[in-house]
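[[Sequence with tokens]]
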Amino acid sequence: MYELFKGVSRQRALIMATLAIAPIPIAFLNELNSIATLVLLHGEGYFASIERPERGALAMLFIKLHGYGLDISAVFWGLWLFPLGLLVYRSGFVPRFLGILLIANCLSYVANSFASLVVPQYEQIVARLMTPLQFGELLFLAWLLVVGAVPASMAESARSEPVRSA
């Protein structure tokens, strides 16, 4: 994506790429919560001294922490869509409405994560309200797969190169 949009704005393309990569270490570290759950429930070694109900309660704690970790990752899953949406909107080789949909998709990820982390009592309401905004990524992907995207600079260079025969 960086290579595709760096001609539109190198700085925004770099921000987009950085935000797209940011949740990877968060998600990997978050998997420690899943591993802790399994270790606790298996109950061997020094965990054998902890009664089964207490181990179950601790396992539920790690499951909840895993969910919070996913919500934190989802903030970044959404944030990278904002610069991508701006790049798409200004590109001229991808339809502008897809850029608007990507920005709306960004807002839905951030709103869902905010609701889940800060006001969990409204999480379901926010999720229902944000559902229509969550199709920007899919439509953008479908457009890239079906139509493709060729930046104007690449199209110009392809037309100016002479055809070589074998």
Summary: Residues 52-79 form the longest helix (28 residues). Residues 2-160 form one domain.
